[in-house]
Amino acid sequence: MGAILDPIEELKQHSVTDDHFREIDITSRLQQNMEINPYKNTSGHRSFTRKTVMSIVIPCLLLASFTAYAASGHIQILNNKGEVVVKTIDPPGSLPAKLSGLLEEYRVRVMSKLQQGELAAYYIKDDYINEGNGYDTLNPVKFEYRPTDYHSYEAFQKEQARTSAPPIKKPGSLPDGVKFAYGQVFPLGPQLYGEERAQYDALKQRLMHQAQSSTSQEKLFVEKLAWSKASNSVVYLSDGKSSTAITITAGYGKKASFTKLPDTSPEKVQLKHMEGIYLQHEANGDLVSWYDPNRSIVYAIMVNVKGLVNKDELLKMAESLIDE
Predict the structure, then answer these.
(1) How many angstroms separate the CA atoms of 282 and 99, rounded?
(2) Which pairs from 132-137 meet CB under 8 Å and 24+ separation?
(3) How many CB atoms are closer than 10 A to CB 281?
(4) pLDDT in tens, 157-190
(5) SS3 letters for 39-51?
(6) Is the pTM of this model over 0.85?
């Protein structure tokens, strides 16, 4: 999502499989549920209780669950309903090499067909990719998007407003030499839930029909999609040497997972009136994330240049993005 850096592709490559936690699959880069490994050295979107009368049972179960989770070295943040909205998880396994190579080959082909601002759905006519890879066989329709870079904050702000993108305020409390480089927004694609399920099913049917009725050797079938609403916003900050020294992301969604490496110690932090999670890694920089319950937006700031900011500076930067 060329030469154009794709932040959602970055998040996807850093993503994890956590089926017990996620509600929205991230096969596409049009994500709501952000599952991020910020420490992997590499550079979409569908949304997929029983009450008890014994009031004493619920808090006991919650306490037991939280204690076991904390004992593993992980932390989690709950909303006012007691639901987990941000948490840390163990590092995931990597994609099978064959699957990863094939998906990247077709991704590059699709990207070559797109202009800035264009979104495409595609289907790959390949039994291994769709049925035999043993990793992901539930997502035959995949998505690609080539973002537009907005090199002034004012232009980026206008695009956020036009597409109803999750807002990212112009960050304050920046270290000397760090400034806005560019921003991007990413579209909300067809959903697998609610009223939009029919739209996704129709898209899937069209692409698969093209593939099944084709008499050529072509395996890639692409359809460009119109879009008007955004699901994710990304801001890049430059330190004068790297235009992606710091990444700020915002995504509509319900939950976020962040990978904790064995030598990292996550901690809860207070960001004004919100709780956040702070992760530090000596070799790869820091990360802070929080969840805005009023707007259902997950925010994260990732420092991509080691030593660029310290913890206090990063937390102040995060607080500058939070309304009073």
Answers:
(1) 31
(2) 133/96, 133/98, 133/99, 134/96, 135/17, 135/95, 135/96, 135/99, 136/27, 136/99
(3) 17
(4) 999 999 999 999 999 899 999 999 999 999 988 8
(5) CCCCCCCCCCCCC
(6) no
